[in-house]
Automatic annotation (TrEMBL):
PROSITE patterns linked to this entry: HPPK (PS00794)
Enzyme class: transferase
Assigned keywords, A-Z: ATP-binding, Folate biosynthesis, Kinase, Nucleotide-binding, Transferase
Matching PANTHER family: 2-AMINO-4-HYDROXY-6-HYDROXYMETHYLDIHYDROPTERIDINE PYROPHOSPHOKINASE
UniProt superkingdom: Bacteria
Hydrolase keyword on record: no
Residues of the 7,8-dihydro-6-hydroxymethylpterin-pyrophosphokinase domain: 84-95
Pathway noted in the entry: Cofactor biosynthesis; tetrahydrofolate biosynthesis; 2-amino-4-hydroxy-6-hydroxymethyl-7,8-dihydropteridine diphosphate from 7,8-dihydroneopterin triphosphate: step 4/4
Name of the molecule in the record: 2-amino-4-hydroxy-6-hydroxymethyldihydropteridine pyrophosphokinase
Family: Belongs to the HPPK family.
Gene3D superfamilies noted in UniProt: 7,8-Dihydro-6-hydroxymethylpterin-pyrophosphokinase HPPK (3.30.70.560)
Keyword Nucleotide-binding: yes
Native organism taxonomy: Bacteria, Pseudomonadati, Pseudomonadota, Alphaproteobacteria, Rhodobacterales
Organism of provenance: Thioclava dalianensis
Length: 178
């Protein structure tokens, strides 16, 4: 989860904290939370730096119902989905759900292998799990390695630690704990 716009004087950190509270008030039990990290906006130049964190949640909801609940929390906190990868008050992504690959390995591979220009133009019409670019994003892997270093990607078989270690050093150097 992350934010790079402020809803008030407390900055984007407050939005991430508020999102965690709202998730706990719904169908989620917080099992672990990473530190908050300051990360550059992606793609470069798309807005102010983000505050990012990862958490492990327990729920009885299905993956689709989980994503729907995430979107409800985002809307409650003022998220407006105006354009892809724009600045936002809060963003809650479902990175993985156990070791499920949804809707299929073939469709997962299609979205994982999409070029960056195509990623900026197209969004999937349904939930893709695990997140198709999880392995490429330091702003996800650095917080995630704190709480789930041994979790293995169900398609690549690599652990979060291995994926994080494979990131370019220049990408990792831009990410700092708050």
């Amino acid at each position: 989860m992350g934010a790079n716009l402020s809803r008030g004087p407390d900055g984007p950190e407050a939005a991430v904290s508020e999102a965690l509270i709202l998730l706990k008030l719904r169908h989620f039990k917080l099992k672990a939370i990473s530190r908050f990290w300051r990360t550059p906006a992606f793609p470069e130049g798309s807005g102010p730096d983000f505050v990012n964190a990862c958490c492990i949640l327990q729920t009885n909801l299905t993956p689709n119902a989980t994503l729907e609940a995430f979107h409800e929390v985002e809307a409650e906190l003022g998220r407006a989905r105006t354009h892809r990868w724009g600045a936002r008050v809060v963003d809650i992504d479902l990175l993985a759900y156990e070791d499920r690959v949804l809707p299929s390995r073939q469709e997962f591979a299609h979205w994982r292998d999409l070029s960056l220009p195509d990623q900026m133009l197209h969004t999937p019409e349904r939930l893709i799990l695990p997140h198709p670019r999880l392995q490429d994003r330091g702003f996800v892997l650095i917080p995630l390695v704190e709480i789930a270093p041994l979790w293995r990607h169900p398609v690549s078989g690599r652990s979060v630690r291995e994926m994080c270690e494979a990131l370019p050093e220049a990408d990792k150097a831009q990410i700092h704990p708050i």
